[in-house]
Design brief:
about 110 residues, alpha+beta, four-stranded antiparallel sheet, 3 helices, 4 strands, about 45% helix
Amino acid sequence: MHAHTIILMGQGTEGGGTSVFIMWGLVLLIFYFFMIRPQQRKQKQAAAFRESLKKGSRVVTIGGIHGKVEEVKEKTVIMTTLGGDKLKVEKSAISPTAEASEADIAQSSK
């Protein structure tokens, strides 16, 4: 009887593969809806913001420089700061989260 018990212990159940597969599928689905999909939506909004830039738009670069758009090219933007300095920056360097206001530009020059 002792040998029979050892043999039975060595044999595993074989029906658990489907439930593990379903569990991993649910984990991947949750990961997609909470991580990947919001990031894609954020990237689309940022791209739409950068494409909508036009002369006179007030912007902030990702480096914190506030300015006003003077000219928009395919991949770059020429902007001026309050001091009158002209900067050529990549469109990707313009932060889509904040637009500069007159008060922000005046405060940054002090």
